[in-house]
Amino acid sequence: MVFGQVVIGPPGSGKTTYCNGMSQFLELIGRKVAVINLDPANDSLPYECAVNIADLVKLSDVMAEHSLGPNGGLVYCMDYLEKNIDWLEARLKPLLKDRYLLFDFPGQVELFFLHSNAKNIIMKLIKKLNLRLAAVHLVDAHLCSDPAKYVSALLLSLSTMIHMELPHINVLSKIDLIQNYGKLAFNLDFYTDVEDLSYLQNSLDQDPRLAKFRKLTKELCGVIEDYSLVSFTTLDIQDKESVGKLVKLIDKTNGYIFASIEASAVEFSKIAVGPVDWDYHRYPFISYSRILLLLFLHFVTVLSFCRCTYNLHVVWASNPLSTYIAFC
Ligand SMILES: Nc1nc2c(ncn2[C@@H]2O[C@H](COP(=O)(O)OP(=O)(O)OP(=O)(O)O)[C@@H](O)[C@H]2O)c(=O)[nH]1
After folding, report:
1. What contacts 248, CB < 8 A, 6 or more positions away?
2. Distance between CA 66 and CA 123 in Å, rounded?
3. Which of 56, 229, 252, 263 has a CA positioned 20 to 30 A from the CA of residue 45?
4. What is the pLDDT of residue 279?
5. Beta-bridge mates of residue 100
6. DSSP string of 281-307?
7. Residue whose CA is closest, atom 3 of ligand 1?
8. Which domain of life does the UniProt lineage start with (predicted)?
9. Three-class DSSP category at 92
10. Backbone angles phi, psi at 35, to 5 degrees
11. Is the CB of 20 under 6 A from ligand 1?
12. Atom 7 in ligand 1: which residue has the minimum CA distance?
């Protein structure tokens, strides 16, 4: 069995940087990795790719030859790749012996929730080459700084999950930059766990520009909550702990951790339901004022306990029976 990741997400969400960082990390932990560039708009690649779609079709040629814009050109390229899937299969076959595959896809989001070419390509590869792939959907974390943008990120993630029908992980990328966009309205957990969107609606209601969309936003939030499928993990690609945490999650999602286990279903389920790692990126979002408040409450509790013990001791000496009854 061959394992890997399908890296998708809107333009600029960090897919190419992710493939570069992830391949370096996986190689450091001893896996042989092959990065497959399926983005015909990727001119300069930071990683060494094992297969490059540019050897089959170039976006600039397609745009010039068929008088298409970049979006139409990309749809054409995916269509062309689907029709020439044998070309891709032939190049992937030598890698199947020992490689972990990272597929770098284009950023045009309509390819992953509207058109079927990209999905067909992935499904054909999975079937023919017996691949175990997980979709890693990157969304720029700065979208959390604006409630309306966050709702659209949720909708995009949900539509992509439903359309792609792959084991799926949504990632808030560039989490190291989120503080540059000002203080978030809620703790980071709120945005990653997607638990109660009514708070978000309240926040949206404060904005007079969005007043006329109130009902629409409410309905959209209702759809997201009804499906109850979307949640996020966080990523700073430059931080090895953050990448390591994500690798563990992906290994569970695409089944990599089960590959070397020859055991009963009980052993498999033990690993599958194992503890989720602490998302340490959330830690800095516990504000200092809360820490001070907690310390103060702790101090007051200890003080009251000492006083109570001292008073009990004094009263006990004068009237042990009534003290015992009061204590009980
Ligand atoms: N600070 C920070 N910057 C990041 C991170 N990931 C990506 N970037 C930056 O984000 C920018 C866009 O990254 P790309 O990897 O080109 O994004 P992409 O999704 O491949 O973009 P397209 O190919 O246009 O779809 C680059 O300047 C990266 O250096 C991250 O985790 N932290």
Report:
1. 277
2. 28
3. 252
4. 46
5. 33
6. GGGGGS-HHHHHHHHHHHHHHHHHHHH
7. 174
8. Eukaryota
9. helix
10. -100, 130
11. no
12. 14
**pLDDT of res. 195:** 80
Dist. CA 237 → ligand 1 center (Å): 9
Structure tokens at 295: 């310390």
Cβ of 10 below 6 Å from ligand 1: no
Is the CB of residue 234 below 6 angstroms from any atom belonging to ligand 1? no
Nearest ligand 1 atom to the CA of 13 is 19
Residue nearest to atom 13 of ligand 1 (CA): 14
Render each residue's pLDDT in the chain as its tens digit; 328 residues.
899 999 999 999 999 999 999 999 999 999 999 999 999 988 889 999 999 999 999 999 999 999 999 999 999 999 999 999 999 999 999 999 999 999 999 999 999 988 999 999 999 999 999 999 999 999 999 999 888 899 999 999 999 999 999 999 999 999 999 989 888 888 899 999 998 888 888 888 788 888 888 888 889 999 999 999 999 999 999 999 999 999 999 999 999 988 865 555 555 565 555 655 544 444 444 445 556 766 777 777 777 766 666 665 555 555 655 555 555 4
Question: From ligand 1's centre to the CA of 15, what distance in Å?
Answer: 6
Closest CA to ligand 1's atom 30: 174
Ligand 1, atom nearest to 46 Cα: 15
Looking only at the bridges linking them, the beta strands covering 2-8 and 131-140 are parallel
* CB-ligand 1 contact for 179 (6 Å cutoff): no
| 7, 8, 17: residue to mutate for ligand 1 pocket, most atoms within 8 A of CB | 17
- CA-closest candidate to residue 9, choices 116, 132, 111, 79: 111
- pTM, two decimal places: 0.81
Q: Which fold has domain 2-283?
A: Rossmann fold (3.40.50)
Answer whether 142 contacts ligand 1 (Cβ < 6 A).
Answer: no
